[in-house]
């Protein structure tokens, strides 16, 4: 773009940052973020969410948590995607306690997980044998009109048959 004397916009940066984050290249995403700021392009919530997701995919949850604190400096607030990325990061690290805490914070903040976030959280809770937590999240999931897939149900039963106490009514 520079060769054509074109300045990248926030959309250009966000697309590239998101792409690198999706494939686990958070260092490249971070370089683009720094370049963006250097060129006077202000980050938005999509920028931060892409960076946070990339870090979480790599298990770098402390760096991701730091970025969440940076949101406030830019007068931005976390949204459902921010929480989903953070929950994902804790699930990658098999930290079901922290993932469940983030889930409760997400709900208290007025946001609802999507089907993938619900599934990832339930699966992690089951793998860590927190079946009460898994059942609570599953009930919330169904209240939100998301219904578990067969794959999710099977992943839960691998942990223990106790998960079958789910109320399907």
Automatic annotation (TrEMBL):
<comment type="similarity">
    <text>Belongs to the PPR family. P subfamily.</text>
</comment>
<dbReference type="InterPro" id="IPR002885">
    <property type="entry name" value="PPR_rpt"/>
</dbReference>
<keyword id="KW-0677">Repeat</keyword>
<dbReference type="GO" id="GO:0003729">
    <property type="term" value="F:mRNA binding"/>
</dbReference>
<feature type="repeat" description="PPR">
    <location>
        <begin position="44"/>
        <end position="78"/>
    </location>
</feature>
<feature type="repeat" description="PPR">
    <location>
        <begin position="114"/>
        <end position="148"/>
    </location>
</feature>
<feature type="repeat" description="PPR">
    <location>
        <begin position="79"/>
        <end position="113"/>
    </location>
</feature>
<feature type="repeat" description="PPR">
    <location>
        <begin position="9"/>
        <end position="43"/>
    </location>
</feature>
<protein>
    <recommendedName>
        <fullName>Pentacotripeptide-repeat region of PRORP domain-containing protein</fullName>
    </recommendedName>
</protein>
<dbReference type="Pfam" id="PF13041">
    <property type="entry name" value="PPR_2"/>
</dbReference>
<dbReference type="InterPro" id="IPR011990">
    <property type="entry name" value="TPR-like_helical_dom_sf"/>
</dbReference>
């Amino acid at each position: 773009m520079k060769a054509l004397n074109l300045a990248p916009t926030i959309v250009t940066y966000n697309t590239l940052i998101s792409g690198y984050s999706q494939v686990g290249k958070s260092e490249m995403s971070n370089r683009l973020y720094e370049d963006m700021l250097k060129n006077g392009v202000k980050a938005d919530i999509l920028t931060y969410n892409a960076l946070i997701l990339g870090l979480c995919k790599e298990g770098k949850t402390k760096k991701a948590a730091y970025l969440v604190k940076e949101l406030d400096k830019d007068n931005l607030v976390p949204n459902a995607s921010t929480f989903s990325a953070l929950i994902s990061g804790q699930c990658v690290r098999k930290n079901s306690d922290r993932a469940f805490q983030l889930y409760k914070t997400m709900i208290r903040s007025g946001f609802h997980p999507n089907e993938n976030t619900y599934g990832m959280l339930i699966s992690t809770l089951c793998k860590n044998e927190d079946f009460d937590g898994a059942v609570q999240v599953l009930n919330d999931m169904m209240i939100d009109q998301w219904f578990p897939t067969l794959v999710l149900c099977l992943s839960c039963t691998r942990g223990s048959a106790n998960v079958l106490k789910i109320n399907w009514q």
